[in-house]
Every structure is written in C-alpha cells, then in structure tokens.
Design brief:
Length: 606
C-alpha cells in the first residue's frame, strides 16, 4: 500500500502518504473517512510534508484492530466518491431579494480570509492613519472604494440584467458619498465588519461541511445481509428497507434502523444531541453514522442513503433550501419598492438642508430586511436540522413556515388510525392552541375534539376550508399522500420511501408526538425570526433618524447595524436548541368542548 508508518506511539501514529501532495481531493476524503471512526480523536493533514497524523483512543480496540480500521480508510479513500446530492427542494425562483450586507455574496464559493478581509482591513488602517500621518486623500479614498468593490459589482450586475435597483445601490451611494466628502472611516469600517461577519459565517459552514458522512460515499464495501429469508452479499449502497445485518465492534452503522437482537456499546453519530457512549438493546433505534464499540447487534434497516437522518441533515446543510418562504418574498418585495422612496427622501433632505450632506446621506443606511435574510440562513436552517434530529423532516423553510401557521388539521384515517391514544393527546394540545381538527373516516371509533367527516362529505369540507382561506395540514398514513388541495400542507406518516425534495412534512418515525415537536420547533423558529427582524430594524431606525435630525456620526450607525446583525446571526440565530413542547403542561383529563363552526352539517365529537 502507498501509505507508510513513519512514527507510532500509543494513541498516535504518523503516516507518510505521497498521494496527498498531488491529489487534494484524496487528502480531504481520507481525513473525512478517518474522522468518521469512533476511535479517532483528531486527524492532522500536512500536504507539504505528505503526512497524516492520527490520534486515537487506544483503550477501545487492540492495536491490530486499530491499524486494520485505519488501513480500511486508506483503501476506501482510493475508490470512494461522494454520492451526488439530490436537487434542492426550493425552486430556483424562490431566492428572495438579497442585499450584500445580509448575505455578502450570493454564490456558494467559500472565499479565503485575504479575499474577504484583506483590502477592507487595509482601507480601515489607512483611514485611521490618514489624519496623523497626513496621507494623500486620493490614495485613502481609492483604497476605501476598492474595498467596496463587491457592492459595486452587484449593482452593475443588477443594472446589466435589467433588474430594478435594490438595497446594494443605497449602500454603494452611501459609501461613495462619504468617501467623496472625506469621511473614510465609516465606509471602511462597514466593509471590514461585513467581511468579518462573512468570514465567521464561512468558518462555521466549513466546519459543518467538513465531515461528509462516510455512509454517504460510494465505495466497494460489502455487507452480508438477510433479505426475505436469504443471505446476500451486497454493496453498502444497495441496502434496502427490511434488510437484516449484524454489526460488530468498529463497524459504522450504515443505515437507520431498529435493533432486533444483541447488545452493544455505541458512540452516537456526530449530528445527535448527545455524544455519550450508550448501550443499545433490542427495540432501540440506531442511526447511520453511529459506531459499534463493543458487543454486536442485529439491525433491521428502516432507511438508507439520503433518507437517513444523517443524509437529510447533510442535504440541508449543503443546499440551504431557505428562501422559498412567504416571509422572504414579502421582505424582497418591500425592499424592492422602498429603494426609490428612500432616494427621494435623501434628495428632499439635501434640498431642505441647503446641501448639508450628513442628514441627506443618513437615509441611505435604512435597513430593509437583513434580519429576515440572516434568520433564513441561521434560524430557519438550524430549525430544519434540529427537526430532523427530533424525527421530523422539513425540506424547505416554506414548509416550516406553513407548519408553524397551521389553523386546521385534517386526519385522513380511511386506511386506519395508528396509536389512537397518542393521537388523542396531541389533538387535545392542538385544540388548546386553537386548531380545528377534522377526522376523515368511513368507520371506526371517533376521537374527542375532532369534527368527523365521511368520504362522501369530503368535497364539502374541502370547499368550506378553501372558502374560509384556512391554513390546512393534511396527514395521511398510506404509502402515498392523497392531499386534495395543492395549497394545503401534506404531512406523511413514516413513509417507507420518500423523495427528499418533495414538498411536505415527513414524520420519520410512527409517533404522534413527533408532529407536536415539529409544530413547536416551527413556531419557535418563526418567532425567533420576527425577534431578529425587530432586533436589527429598531436600532437601525433609531440611529438613521439620529443621523437625519441630530447629526449622529455615521460610524455609530455602522457599529450599531453590524453589532445587532452579529447578535441576530451568531448568538440568537445559531442556537441548536429549539422548543419541542407545544404547551408547558397538558392535562389529559381536560374536557374538550366542540368548537363553534360555520359548517353545521359536520358533527363534532365530544
């Protein structure tokens, strides 16, 4: 084999791997495979020296087993390729209007620190030293304008494409006018702080995307499974639901499933909330990416590949399907229509103050929704990932928004109703939140607090809900979803297979409480988004009007805007913990009263 051990001590080994010098993709893949092992604590790759240093936990496996696992990673990296991602669930035209300060650059390329911060830092330094050192104003001004080049590029692109002016035009004019008037510090500070936020964001994204899960890589790894009573040897990518396979010490769990036999110590996958080693027994769930440390278990496969929790989270982090919500479109439309009135206001102040540039330039710093944009990339995406951890898949932020705003829920129980007692508890919680619950079935026991509807009355119910413009969710239990209205939100109950890009909520496990958790997470995320909008917009209005009427220095405006944006994005927005309880306390014996309906032909169960 190409790799050679050049130094080894207990818990640490250094390999010489010449290929990593000439093949960066191989080196990155190798690091990801090594880091996926439960025994590995840290991997350091030195491309110039062509070495890979692995630190591992020697007490988990004997030395021979450790080296066997490491060598398998080297073999797999030579043939492994990441499986292609499914297309994003968000349509291409779902990208809301974005300003540079909110998203900095629209492309997905991760820039280097120098590309992002080099010129802005130089401009900031020259601005601070221009007075004491009496630097030429032309040199300082040119540097400041050069640091704002990304804004100018986006404005030029908008104009060349025939698009209406956007917020980038206001930012560009603000920086140009301040620079022309010799106020270098404010625009230089603006480009530096915006670049710094983008740099922090990219570092976080690199950390999230660095570990491409090993179970989502295509390589020649064979598994022996039992399928329909027959023993088969298949490649890992050929795993199917209902396959049975044994997992032994050091094995990476290749799919989501349930333990049916055996006992083992397991280290959870990196996406799970707790990384503490635990003992799994028959009946426990195991998720792809976990690793068997000791013992052995037999796994009954439920989901594999992109349909595992690990696959769905990886898909969300790479595609970021967060711009299809109504809130994003509303913010985009508002920002688009507010640009020209803002320019008019600035011109009116210029004329009204007889050419005093300070108050006239101040309105150009009005914020038109970066709080929404930041929350979409942080709060919404974090909520989608957290929901998958809780057993609920929300493919886009638009789906999350619909789930948070549900007013009615139709339960299609024509194929049977699973777990009616759990359903009764959730219905009670939803009723206390003001939701109308309809139970569609031809026969079966009624559920308290629901309006019963038979198959022949479904058209009447559909017409009623449409006429009332209710936000409706439709939960079904078959292999396919029969949601009759395209504007309603489909909710699928533990489908055997599903398209990760199909619009609608997917309950990954047969559990009514998962739906309650999903609604609570969605409502919490939407609430945080509104809080972020207020957190950014109100201080921005205060300092902007302060500049217009009280001569507030523009540096105060820049610091305030970026500080609130930083808080919204990295402190309040990136929280990994969302509310999962619909109500603090729920009494299961609370009597349910029929809701007053304007559709008297439907009987409400008491």
């Amino acid at each position: 084999m190409e790799q050679q051990i050049v130094h080894a001590t207990t818990g640490r080994v250094r390999f010489r791997v010449p290929r990593v010098q000439r093949d960066p993709a191989y080196g990155e893949l190798l690091v990801q495979l090594l880091e996926s092992l439960a025994i590995v604590e840290q991997v350091r790759l030195n491309r110039q020296a062509a070495t890979v240093v692995v630190q591992y936990q020697p007490h988990l496996l004997d030395e021979a087993a450790v080296y066997e696992r490491l060598n398998q990673c080297f073999e797999q990296a030579m043939v492994a390729m990441p499986q292609p991602f499914p297309d994003s669930a968000a349509p291409a035209d779902a990208i809301a209007l974005e300003d540079y300060q909110a998203q900095v650059e629209a492309d997905a390329r991760l820039e280097t620190d120098w590309e992002r911060l080099g010129l802005p830092l130089v401009a900031l330094g020259l601005s601070l030293l221009s007075g004491p050192l009496e630097l030429p104003l032309a040199v300082v001004g040119t540097t400041v304008l050069a640091s704002a080049w990304p804004w100018f590029q986006r404005v030029g692109h908008q104009i060349s494409q025939g698009h209406p002016p956007n917020v980038d035009l206001l930012d560009s004019l603000w920086m140009v006018l301040h620079t022309i008037n010799g106020q270098f510090l404010a625009p230089a500070l603006k480009t530096t702080l915006a670049g710094a936020r983008a740099d922090v964001r990219d570092r976080q994204r690199r950390q999230q995307l660095h570990r491409y899960p090993s179970v989502l890589m295509a390589h020649c790894e064979y598994l022996t499974v039992e399928r329909q009573g027959h023993s088969l040897t298949i490649e890992r990518q050929e795993l199917q639901a209902a396959d049975l396979l044994w997992l032994r010490p050091g094995d990476l769990v290749p799919a989501d499933g349930v333990v049916v036999a055996g006992l083992a110590e397991v280290e959870p996958a990196h996406f799970e909330a707790s990384r503490e080693v635990w003992v799994c027994r028959p009946g426990d769930a195991l998720y792809a990416g976990s690793q068997i440390l000791t013992g052995q278990v037999q796994l009954w496969v439920i989901r594999s590949g992109w349909q595992t929790r690990l696959g769905l989270i990886t898909h969300l982090l790479h595609t970021e399907p967060v711009y299809d919500s109504a809130l994003a479109h509303q913010q985009g439309e508002f920002a688009r229509h507010a640009v020209l009135p803002t320019l008019a206001l600035s011109g009116a102040l210029w004329l009204g103050t007889t050419g005093v540039y300070g108050p006239a330039i101040a309105p150009l710093q009005l914020d038109f929704g970066s709080g929404v944009q930041l929350s979409l990339r942080t709060v919404m995406l974090s909520a989608q990932v957290f929901a998958v951890q809780q057993g609920v898949y929300l493919p886009t932020a638009g789906t999350l928004e619909q789930l948070a705003q549900l007013e009615s829920l139709v339960i299609d129980a024509r194929a049977g109703l699973p777990q009616p007692q759990q359903a009764q508890i959730l219905i009670q919680q939803l009723r206390q939140l003001g939701l109308h619950i309809y139970l569609l079935q031809d026969q079966g026991r009624p559920l308290g607090g629901t309006t019963e509807v038979t198959r022949d009355r479904l058209p009447d119910l559909q017409a009623y809900l449409v006429s009332q413009r209710r936000r409706v969710g439709w939960i079904s239990f078959g292999e396919t979803c029969s949601c009759p209205e395209p504007t309603w939100l489909p909710i699928r109950w533990q489908p055997p297979t599903f398209d990760p890009n199909a619009k609608g909520v997917v309950l990954l496990e047969g559990d009514w409480s998962a739906l309650g958790r999903g609604i609570a997470i969605a409502r919490d995320a939407l609430e945080r988004t509104y809080q972020n909008v207020a957190l950014i917009a109100l201080p921005n209005l205060a300092v902007t009007f302060g500049g217009m009427f009280f001569g507030l220095h523009p540096v105060v405006n820049v610091v305030t805007n970026n500080a609130t944006a930083f808080i919204a994005e990295f402190w309040h927005g990136n929280s990994t913990q969302f509310r999962t309880a619909l109500l603090p306390r729920v009494s299961t014996t609370l009597p349910l009263q029929p809701l007053p309906l304007e559709f008297p032909q439907l009987a409400v169960a008491s």
